[in-house]
Amino acid sequence: MTRKLYSLCGEDGIRHYSPHVWKIIMALEHKGLEYSLTPVSFEDISEIEDGSYSSVPVLRDGETVLGESYDIARYLDETYPEAPALFDGKGAMALTRFVESYCKTVLHPSLATIAVMDMHNLMSPDDQVYFRTARERRFGMSLEEMAKGADRERAALPDKLAPIRDLLTHQAWVSGATPAYADYTLFGTLQWCNVCSPNTLFTKDDTVSSWFDRCLDLYDGVGRNPARSS
Amino acid sequence: MTRKLYSLCGEDGIRHYSPHVWKIIMALEHKGLEYSLTPVSFEDISEIEDGSYSSVPVLRDGETVLGESYDIARYLDETYPEAPALFDGKGAMALTRFVESYCKTVLHPSLATIAVMDMHNLMSPDDQVYFRTARERRFGMSLEEMAKGADRERAALPDKLAPIRDLLTHQAWVSGATPAYADYTLFGTLQWCNVCSPNTLFTKDDTVSSWFDRCLDLYDGVGRNPARSS
């Protein structure tokens, strides 16, 4: 296997929880490309390949190594044009960026708060120290203080998902009639919280929840098995 | 001229302020298609063409008459494929819907509050009665009560525009390297408030404000002249 995806894992070395890695897991499955997952801890990231990476995913594909989920998705479409497209045209490439910007600016802050303690608790002791130090510096408060906002953020989430809920009244998938990278962008973002804090994301019967369930079913239910060793 | 766009106007019969009409004004300009604007009041809408419409825009194009801005944009691309495309591919058609859903669920409620009294004040007396009755029923409060939320909504707007601001760090236009219908969808939404309550939308030096200015410059500055008689 020459295709290797470096993926942030919990202390067990098999629980994959990075939102951006999940985008690429789904992208590789979508394109039907084989790959193996190489678990890394926060500490390991600086030692991936040539040591120039500060985040995951990183993909090695034969002699090519690259990072940044969106760039990897673009690379996969360019390199494997015969496999199903992740972007249905150039316009979709640009507009998928808007889904990414929405996930980053609207959803990430809420999900980071909702999942903060569960995420911390699944890490190795060394990653816990790294994570605590980095987050507490960034947010100017302890993780425990941050976690006090979890109920508030969980209550705000349905409103924050309103644009997706409205979109899904028009079409079955974010990308249109069939799922593509815009779906995986949103899915990865939510899957992060779903892996760390299972069953806390949605209230029942939400349109977005049923879309998320359909995403979990894709590709032999790969999203339903976040704990895997390869 | 066989191409006629019905457009909601103020009492002066020349101030065009409907967000959805603005989307189609920009779409027609983008495609280089000639058109005339037919001003209508709220009262007039039920008498447009065969009387089956309850909102604007309505476009008559030769023998074809249709409503709903997104459907009109799709129609224009299908009917005039040789003119510049409003959607760069099928994927862009689907993802432009997400921009529309974001405008509808995130921005509209804020803008409706910010502009409510100015919008009311530019209408004819009959439209003022219609508008007041409809809005007060929908929101369960007087227009004046609603307007008290304007400062709060204006303060919330920069945060609500965060996904657009983030997107514009990657590309010059919402649609990518050049403007297209996703831009006009957002532009129309903001132009509504800009026409009703000029110079209140943005704080200075905002990335989104500079994008909006570039939209106003397009097509001989059509957006800078919201008061026009044809």
TrEMBL record, chains A, B:
A UniProt-annotated Pfam family: GST_C_7
Domain of life from the UniProt record: Bacteria
Domain GST N-terminal, first and last residues per copy: 8-84
Keyword Nucleus in annotation: no
UniProt keyword terms in alphabetical order: Plasmid
Name of the featured protein: Beta etherase TdaB
Species whose genome carries this gene: Phaeobacter porticola
